[in-house]
Automatic annotation (TrEMBL):
Organism name: Mannheimia haemolytica
Gene3D superfamilies assigned: MazG-like
Pfam family, one: MazG
Domain of life where this protein originates: Bacteria
Domain called NTP pyrophosphohydrolase MazG-like: residue spans: 22-66
Protein name: NTP pyrophosphohydrolase MazG-like domain-containing protein
């Protein structure tokens, strides 16, 4: 996963997302992607959920890089759910923490929530992030008002 993170950071640098955007703009993007996650959950669509989780992690990586905060997705591979039920309100609270607090753990808590949701749908965070990177690695687009807009949406 560390190599994927480095690849995404480089992808973002190459498209001027680190210096050409702001953490506030990335927070808006994070909320947009969270809406897509909610759509996948509402439709009980595992592929939409996988795509959204990966996209959320990509945005967190970019936002953390802008804030000069190292990002360490906790390795959850051996974690057990023990009857855990995904709670959307906890995820929303973690999103709030990402914007509000400055400690290093804010992303790890959100990744923990995403990890549980991924496992419920038989994915790992690495699966989701690899899928997202595969989707964006050759993507073209442009910056508009500090937000990266993919070519298909121009």
């Amino acid at each position: 996963m560390q190599q994927l993170i480095k690849n995404i950071e480089q992808w973002a640098e190459d498209r001027n997302l680190i210096n050409g955007s702001t953490p506030q703009k990335q927070m808006l993007k994070l909320m947009e992607e969270f809406g897509e996650l909610c759509g996948g959950i509402a439709r009980n669509n595992p592929e939409m959920i996988k795509d959204a989780i990966g996209d959320l992690i990509v945005v967190c990586i970019i936002k953390a890089k802008q804030e000069k905060q190292p990002i360490y997705p906790v390795q959850f591979e051996n974690h057990r759910l023990n009857g855990y039920r995904f709670d959307i309100s906890v995820a929303v609270h973690c999103l709030y923490d990402i914007e509000r607090i400055k400690d290093r753990g804010k992303y790890s808590r959100f990744f923990g929530i995403l990890h549980h949701l991924a496992l419920i749908n038989r994915f790992t965070l690495n699966d989701c992030l690899a899928h997202a990177y595969d989707q964006i690695k050759d993507r073209k687009g442009e910056m508009q008002a500090g937000i990266w807009v993919k070519e298909d949406d121009l």
